[in-house]
Amino acid sequence: MLDKVLRTTRARLTMLVVDEAGMSTVEYAIGTVAAAAFGAILYSVVTGDSIVGALTNIINRALNTGT
Length: 67
Description:
By secondary structure, the chain is mainly α. It has three helices and no strands.
């Protein structure tokens, strides 16, 4: 009897830990917010003056090689 109760309790606890019902929407929302934040940070870095100046300098040096 006690063995059956323990097995049933263990099975229920396992289902509580493994069950992912309802988690996909939350994970999708968090992933979307994280991607949007990363995109905003990347945009601000790439459009910053130092990056634009560095890229312009690299392109100018590549086009003005003395060969």
